Structures are given as structure tokens and as C-alpha cells.
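Thread amino acids onto this structure.
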């Protein structure tokens, strides 16, 4: 089973990667930029595997670049607050 198949597993995966990046000294801006790049890659290359990912993909598809950066930043906050627990 892929980490993308289950929303909670996906959040945990992102939370773990976020912690690794922070331990390696990535700034909050770098983390947010990386989240934007990952979101853009996923939207273009990966079919959503669950309802939550479908919502994110739909939002991403109509968002401006500024809004996409906001979505990515919110995802970072989500996993910081409860994704890697």
C-alpha cells in the first residue's frame, strides 16, 4: 500500500519529512517552498488516492501561484500541528 492511499499515513509521512528538514536546518521559507514544489508535482503527476487528496487537487487546479503557496503553507502547518504524532 502506498503512503498516498491513506490520508493519516500521508500526513504522518509529511510530518516525518518536515521534522527531518528542520533538523537539517531548513528555514520555514525553505520548507514552504519545498511543500509548494511537492504539491505542484503531485497535482501534475499523481492521481489522488482518497477524498482529501481529491479536494486538494481540485483546489490546486484552480488556484493562482500565490494561492498554491498558501495551500502548501497550510499543509505544512497541518502536519506540524498533528501530522507526525
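Threaded sequence (85 positions):
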Amino acid at each position: 500500500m502506498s503512503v498516498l492511499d491513506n490520508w493519516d499515513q500521508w500526513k504522518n509521512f509529511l510530518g516525518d519529512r518536515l521534522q527531518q528538514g528542520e533538523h537539517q536546518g531548513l528555514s520555514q521559507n525553505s520548507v514552504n517552498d519545498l511543500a509548494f514544489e511537492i504539491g505542484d508535482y503531485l497535482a501534475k503527476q499523481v492521481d489522488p488516492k482518497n477524498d482529501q487528496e481529491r479536494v486538494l487537487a481540485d483546489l490546486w487546479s484552480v488556484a493562482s501561484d500565490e494561492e498554491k503557496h498558501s495551500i502548501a503553507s497550510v499543509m505544512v502547518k497541518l502536519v506540524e500541528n498533528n501530522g507526525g504524532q
